[in-house]
């Protein structure tokens, strides 16, 4: 009976030792397979997603609206007349957000695929509003927009007859 007890005890110790060895080898093998315990690439929080204001398109007198690239602000542009005769004056009015009072406001015209500044300009008044008047002489559909600093308005179409 003594020998049976010794034999069982030896088997239990051997099985325990074998289990510890296999467990240690498996863990060591897992660490050896990956150079670090952390996943690679490691996710990091570099910032929070923030919505940005890229433009506010408001319908103009012609019924359309378009977006233009903008800085950190917005500006609207409304035209007094959607159709004018060549040489007739047209007035642009609007308001700006995120632009300092006193900033120069310039009227831009699409010409040969580029935005060019017209001679008409003003400054933002208290309340961030502006009003500028210009005469349009080129017949056809004119694409116009207003720029205050680096902020531009949506494009406004005016038909000159």
Features:
6-stranded mixed β-sheet; 35% strand; 4-stranded antiparallel β-sheet; alpha+beta; 161 residues; 20% helix
Task: Report the strand count.
Answer: 10
Distance between the termini: 120 Å
Low-confidence stretches: 49-70
Q: Could you say which overall geometry the principal axes of the C-alpha atoms support? A: rod-shaped
* Helix coverage percent: 10-25%
Mean pLDDT score, rounded? 77
Number of H/I helices:
1
Biggest β-sheet strands, sense, barrel: 6 strands, mixed
Radius of gyration: 37 Å
Note down, in words, how this protein is organized.
By secondary structure, the protein is α+β, with helices and mostly antiparallel strands. Helices cover 20% and strands 35% of the residues. It has one helix and ten strands; from the N terminus they run αββββββββββ. Strands 3, 5, 6, 8, 9 and 10 form a six-stranded mixed beta sheet that branches. Strands 1, 2, 4 and 7 form a four-stranded antiparallel beta sheet that branches. Strand 5 and strand 6 (114-123) form a beta hairpin. It is rod-shaped, with a radius of gyration of 37 Å. It starts with a helix and ends with a strand.
Task: Give the arrangement of secondary structure elements.
Blueprint: H1 2-33, E1 74-75, E2 78-79, E3 83-84, E4 89-97, E5 104-111, E6 114-123, E7 129-135, E8 140-148, E9 151-152, E10 156-160
Parallel strand pairs: 3-10
Antiparallel strand pairs: 1-4, 2-4, 4-7, 5-6, 5-8, 8-9, 8-10
Brief sketch in words of this structure:
By secondary structure, the chain is of the alpha+beta class. Helices cover 20% and strands 35% of the residues. The strands form 2 sheets. Strands 3, 5, 6, 8, 9 and 10 form a 6-stranded mixed beta sheet that branches. Strands 1, 2, 4 and 7 form a 4-stranded antiparallel beta sheet that branches.
């Amino acid at each position: 009976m003594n020998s049976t007890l010794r034999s069982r005890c030896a088997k239990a110790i051997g099985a325990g030792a074998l289990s510890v060895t296999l467990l240690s080898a498996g863990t060591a093998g897992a660490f050896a397979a990956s150079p670090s315990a952390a996943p690679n690439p490691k996710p990091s929080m570099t910032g929070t997603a923030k919505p940005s204001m890229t433009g506010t398109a408001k319908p103009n007198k012609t019924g359309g609206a378009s977006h233009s690239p903008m800085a950190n602000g917005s500006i609207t542009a409304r035209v007094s007349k959607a159709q004018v005769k060549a040489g007739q004056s047209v007035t642009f009015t609007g308001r700006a957000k995120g632009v300092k009072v006193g900033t120069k406001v310039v009227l831009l015209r699409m010409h040969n695929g580029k935005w060019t500044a017209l001679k008409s300009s003003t400054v933002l008044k208290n309340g961030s509003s502006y009003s500028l008047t210009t005469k349009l002489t080129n017949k056809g559909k004119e694409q116009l927009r207003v720029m205050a600093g680096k902020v531009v308005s949506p494009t406004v179409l005016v038909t000159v007859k």
